[in-house]
Amino acid sequence: MVKSLMNNTQLGALARTFSALADQSRLLILHTLRQNPCYVNELCEKTGLKQANVSKQLGILKNAGLVDAQRQGNLVHYTICEPIIFEICELVCNKLERDARRRLEDFAPAKRGQ
Amino acid sequence: MVKSLMNNTQLGALARTFSALADQSRLLILHTLRQNPCYVNELCEKTGLKQANVSKQLGILKNAGLVDAQRQGNLVHYTICEPIIFEICELVCNKLERDARRRLEDFAPAKRGQ
DNA sequence: TGACAATATCACTAAACTGTGATATTGTAA
DNA sequence: TTACAATATCACAGTTTAGTGATATTGTCA
Lengths: 114, 114
Hints:
- The structure is a homodimer of 114-residue chains.
- Chain A is built from five helices and three strands, in the order H-H-E-H-H-E-E-H.
- Chain A has two domains: 19-81, Winged helix-like DNA-binding domain superfamily/Winged helix DNA-binding domain (Arc Repressor Mutant, subunit A); 83-114.
- In chain A, a hairpin with a 2-residue loop joins strand 2 and strand 3 (75-80).
- The first copy, chain A, has a three-stranded antiparallel beta sheet.
- With 114 residues, chain A is α+β, with helices and mostly antiparallel strands.
- The A-B interface holds A 1-4, 6, 8, 10-19, 21-24, 26-28, 31, 35, 65, 82, 84, 86-96, 99 and B 1-4, 6, 8, 10-19, 21-24, 26-28, 31, 35, 65, 82, 84, 86-96, 99.
- The structure holds a DNA duplex (30 and 30 nucleotides).
């Protein structure tokens, strides 16, 4: 259970963490890193995002404590350091799927199966 | 497990849900509603936010499918309709606490207990 | 009907954010 | 040292967002 009473500092920190997750490009980066931790240039290729943008978003993710960076010579290797983000995404994805299913039911009630 | 491959539509929907959670005022409203579902005017009193603001944020939360509204005469009663948001907040809060603890350890290593 | 209360919406301002080209930084290797 | 590659940072434009006072909408009651 979340603490039953939260203070403003806690709510602010919570909001900042959600902000880090509230962008499609950053989610794409996390999703990509999940398949394989990799270097910045690889992230650019895999995601199709530009280098400056990838670096910027990685900075935000790192600042939120979601990814870790490790310099290897000329390269920087990024890893996800908070697997809980995938639990969280799973919970939200399930909710979204339920929502969509419910919306369909409004048009095609009683159809069973998917 | 989250689907191992997500498409842009899914990532976008995910980002939009996190956006709804990425604001301190909205988290405060959710937190308040969690103690007791209530009417808009009560929310204004309990949170100290202005009426126009509360209505606006409630609209965003409702649009994200996080709260439900039920008109009762002149009043509108709001309820949280997605308890999973508390699981999510709990996961994030635990992470934040771990982060803070780790940060403390950098200054006061080996102190045990809290 | 008219007066009033609760809530939602509008129009606006100030602040924050995304993506980008250009540039700075950091490391390698000759 | 110099040249070069990978990444981070800067400065900027365009977009989005939160909060607010004013107003519109919706419902109650007399």
